[in-house]
Recover the amino acids of this structure.
């Protein structure tokens, strides 16, 4: 799950990281009121789940409250990487002397959380990695002991030669790690981490990705989900325990298991078709899940045929068959369906489908070819 | 023969009285696996299906029955704790079927398992099956048949698909291992390839990967440098949309985006024949046996 910058700032603040104040506005008037309250220059920042906000015109400086209103008006409603800006963060503009990067990421290769620190902040870390990889210090944390103070100090001294700055940075690195662990993060970044002319170190921008699997025990973090920023069909799928990603093809796919779902999409492409989606109905499927899957697939107007590819292990084929029958009774599907069921209770499933006028296939390649042909036939 | 499981495997089922645990315990017994104990805290003293004694702790189960392997079917919130407990009790093999385990939990469980000298398979995996010998997990027993091909895969149902197609074409398997789709897992491709290379009854290996991470690239280099047996491969997700992975910072560390094309190239460069479709694995394997 992604959270917004202002939410990540709240989490960091709660762990003691010095984060300047800031408030959320949804209208230009609100932005003006917030700016007036701070006085002086403010920065107005789009809150969307996308990087490169600055380049897309989503971050602007404002000299006074009236200007803040104007800049807010220019940012609210624009699209950044396909996402509409509904909220903006209004924060006092900071005096910046230097900008650094501080991040933690879960690294599958080393099976550890890796801390990355670079004196080249304010720009994308991938850019630094490409042009000047030596400017990034990395440290793999042993999760059994957590980040140790001397490790944070060593990273901080690599960042700042001034002892006072290094001391502050070391504390912030420790606090960021604590926040990362406490909020179930797989990624947490402060970019930039700034120093001010007065010798203070502060976190200006923050980004966090949260492990979905950790949310069940982090209700405060789970409540930060911005449902408005989610695709409605993907939200519906998530709530029903399905995994769905919309694509732009015309063969609607319904498969059990992520690997088989991807392989099915690949096969659709292989036989000259175009998958309309990735949809994994998961393990122990009940008929209701299948009905929801139908509703989601048919809500995509591009879909011309529906392809079921089920390999029953935990999933019982008869459950899926019952779901298909139930769904076609409840909603007017109006699209040709190609079904393949193999595995647990396959015979029962074939019987259920036959009784209700559906044909069931047993071969993956055959069913994919059929679905592609059906989509092409419906399109012409 | 087989890898990781054999005739001496004595299995304890953690979460034996749960819905999934009880169903799959019966399936494993039916397949011939020696299930010697179950564990459900608070239900110690019961006997599952009049045959399998249930204990409160894994330690008790091990000392009473001599169990040397464990399979975990407990809910995600308790899965890492179950892994710690199994490792603590001294079993050699721990197979965690549970999906949805927080990655932060695995971050501490993995080094613990390693310290204790146990092997963990999973989490979020279908387990393993050695045709005609036994199975641990949820792989359907009816689709396998004994033979010379080792299978290692990151997915569940896609593995079944590949096994099904091999079996249908008369090609049997030595052991099929589903290593799990999570970012942090206990046993990786290289561990399985190492075991297959050493197993006298495996003469070829099918490796089934997915987009994301760099495990397949690492495995490809291992095949090139350390394997004498032929390996064929398939990568799922050739048409998957980019951007559905965890931030770009992950890619910086590994130096890779983890696309299917990248992995298929790595396979080819290291002498691993790549199947375009799962069905093509059959011909590729046949030609190498």
């Amino acid at each position: 799950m992604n959270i917004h910058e202002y939410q990540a700032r709240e989490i960091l603040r709660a762990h003691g990281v010095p984060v300047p104040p800031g408030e959320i506005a949804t209208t230009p008037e609100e932005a003006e009121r917030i700016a007036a309250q701070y006085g002086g220059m403010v920065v107005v920042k789009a809150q969307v789940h996308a990087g490169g906000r600055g380049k897309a015109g989503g971050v602007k400086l404002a000299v006074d409250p009236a200007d803040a209103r104007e800049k807010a008006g220019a940012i609210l409603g624009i699209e950044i990487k396909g996402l509409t800006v509904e909220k903006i963060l209004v924060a006092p503009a900071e005096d910046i002397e230097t900008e650094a990067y501080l991040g933690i990421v879960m690294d599958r290769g080393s099976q550890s959380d890796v801390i990355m620190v670079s004196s080249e902040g304010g720009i994308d870390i991938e850019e630094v990695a490409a042009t000047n990889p030596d400017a990034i210090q990395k440290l793999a944390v042993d999760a059994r002991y957590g980040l140790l103070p001397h490790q944070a100090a060593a990273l901080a001294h690599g960042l700042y030669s001034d002892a006072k700055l290094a001391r502050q940075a070391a504390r912030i690195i420790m606090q960021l790690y604590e926040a990362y662990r406490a909020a179930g993060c797989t990624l947490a970044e402060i970019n930039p981490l700034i120093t001010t002319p007065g010798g203070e170190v502060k976190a200006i921008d923050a980004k966090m990705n949260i492990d979905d699997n950790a949310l069940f025990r982090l209700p405060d973090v789970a409540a930060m989900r911005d449902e408005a920023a989610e695709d409605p069909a993907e939200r519906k799928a998530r709530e029903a325990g399905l995994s769905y990603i919309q694509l732009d093809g015309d063969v609607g796919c319904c498969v059990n298991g992520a690997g088989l779902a991807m392989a099915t999409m690949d096969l659709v492409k292989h036989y000259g078709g175009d998958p309309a989606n990735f949809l994994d109905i998961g393990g122990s499927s009940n008929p209701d899940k299948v009905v929801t899957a139908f509703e989601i697939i048919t809500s995509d107007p591009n879909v011309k045929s529906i392809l079921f590819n089920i390999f029953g292990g935990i999933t019982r084929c008869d459950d899926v068959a019952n779901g298909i029958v139930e769904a076609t009774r409840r909603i007017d599907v109006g699209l040709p369906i190609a079904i393949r069921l193999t595995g647990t209770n396959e015979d029962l499933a074939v019987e259920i489908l036959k009784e209700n006028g559906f044909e069931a296939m047993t071969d993956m390649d055959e069913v994919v070819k059929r679905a592609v042909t059906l989509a092409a036939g419906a399109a012409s | 023969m087989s890898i990781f499981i054999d005739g001496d495997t004595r299995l304890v089922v953690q979460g034996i009285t749960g819905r999934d645990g009880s169903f799959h315990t019966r399936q494993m017994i039916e397949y011939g696996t020696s299930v010697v104990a179950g564990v459900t805290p608070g239900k110690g003293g019961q006997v599952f299906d009049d045959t399998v004694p249930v204990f409160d702790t894994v330690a008790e189960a091990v000392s009473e029955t001599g169990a040397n392997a464990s399979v975990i079917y407990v809910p995600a919130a308790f899965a890492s704790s179950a892994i710690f407990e199994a490792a603590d009790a001294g079993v050699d093999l721990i197979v965690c079927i549970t999906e949805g385990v927080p990655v932060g939990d695995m971050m501490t469980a993995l080094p613990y398992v390693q310290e204790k000298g146990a092997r963990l398979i999973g989490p979020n995996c279908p387990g393993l099956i050695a045709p005609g010998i036994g199975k641990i997990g949820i792989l359907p027993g009816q689709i396998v048949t004994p033979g010379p091909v080792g299978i290692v895969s990151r997915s569940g149902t896609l593995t079944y698909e590949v096994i099904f197609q091999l079996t249908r074409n008369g090609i049997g398997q030595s052991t099929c291992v589903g290593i799990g789709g999570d970012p942090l897992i206990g046993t990786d491709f290289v561990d399985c390839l190492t075991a297959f290379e050493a197993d006298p009854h495996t003469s070829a290996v099918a490796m089934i990967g997915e987009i994301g991470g760099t495990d397949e690239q690492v495995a490809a280099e291992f095949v090139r440098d350390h394997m004498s047996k032929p390996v064929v491969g398939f990568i799922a997700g050739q048409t998957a949309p980019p951007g559905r992975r965890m931030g770009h910072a992950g890619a910086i560390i590994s130096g890779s985006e983890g696309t299917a094309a990248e992995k298929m190239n790595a396979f080819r460069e290291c002498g691993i024949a790549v199947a375009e479709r799962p069905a093509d694995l059959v011909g590729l394997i046949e030609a190498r046996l």
Observations:
- Chain A touches chain B through 63 residues (CB under 8 Å).
